[in-house]
């Protein structure tokens, strides 16, 4: 399971000309799954995202979590996070989970994020062509991978 998170002052997802999800201050989460992902990966990631201190305190130091600021999450599926570019110029997505694996994991991730955080969790539409508008605050962008916990 791999995520790219961005601290945002606002973000939205549009599908077919209509906004399907939007948030104010919080975290945009681009998430990609692989076949090897299990419940433990989701639990670890949810805990990490809820407690990651990337929001500014009164002294403008990144010392607060999304829970501390009562922010919002916007989750967008993105299988291209598992692109392999070693050979040639066309990325390979062989490591990305197929929809029959990824869709249940995506919904499980969103459900656990909602239950654990008790915060607003908006989402895109899995597999849809989406336009994602973000106002990256900072900018702050972080990559987290459950298979490479750095």
Please, could you describe this protein's structure?
It is a single chain. The protein has about 150 residues and is an alpha/beta fold. The protein has one domain (about 1-145): D-tyrosyl-tRNA(Tyr) deacylase (D-tyrosyl-trna(Tyr) Deacylase, Chain: A), CATH 3.50.80.10. The protein is about 25% helix and about 35% strand. The protein has 3 helices and 8 strands, in the order βββαββαβαββ. The strands form 2 sheets. Strands 1, 2, 3, 6, 7 and 8 form a 6-stranded mixed beta sheet that branches. Strands 4-5 form a two-stranded antiparallel ribbon. A hairpin with a 5-residue loop joins strand 4 (about 55) and strand 5. Helix 1 (about 40-50) crosses helix 3 (about 100-115). The radius of gyration is 15 Å and the shape is globular. It starts with a strand and ends in a 5-residue tail after the last strand. The relative contact order is 0.30. The mean pLDDT is about 95.
Concise synopsis of the structure shown:
The protein contains 3 helices and 8 strands, in the order βββαββαβαββ. The protein has helices at 39-51, 66-69, 99-117, and strands at 2-15, 18-23, 26-32, 55-56, 62-64, 72-77, 121-123, 131-145. The mean pLDDT is 96.
Keywords:
D-tyrosyl-trna(Tyr) Deacylase, Chain: A; single chain; alpha/beta; 37% strand; 150 residues; 3 helices; 8 strands; six-stranded mixed sheet
């Amino acid at each position: 399971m791999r995520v790219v998170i961005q601290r945002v002052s606002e973000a939205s997802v549009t599908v077919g000309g209509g906004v399907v999800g939007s948030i104010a201050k919080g975290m945009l989460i681009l998430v990609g799954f692989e076949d090897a992902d299990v419940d433990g990966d989701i639990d670890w990631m949810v805990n990490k995202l809820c407690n990651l201190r990337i929001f500014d305190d009164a002294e403008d130091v990144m010392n607060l979590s999304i829970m501390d600021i009562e922010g919002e999450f916007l989750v967008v599926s993105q299988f291209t996070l598992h692109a392999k570019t070693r050979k040639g110029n066309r990325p390979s997505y062989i490591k990305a989970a197929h929809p029959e694996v990824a869709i249940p994991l995506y919904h499980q991730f969103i459900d656990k994020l909602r239950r654990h955080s008790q915060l607003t969790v908006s989402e895109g539409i899995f597999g849809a062509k989406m336009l994602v508008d973000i106002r990256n605050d900072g900018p702050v962008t972080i990559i987290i991978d459950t298979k490479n916990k750095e």
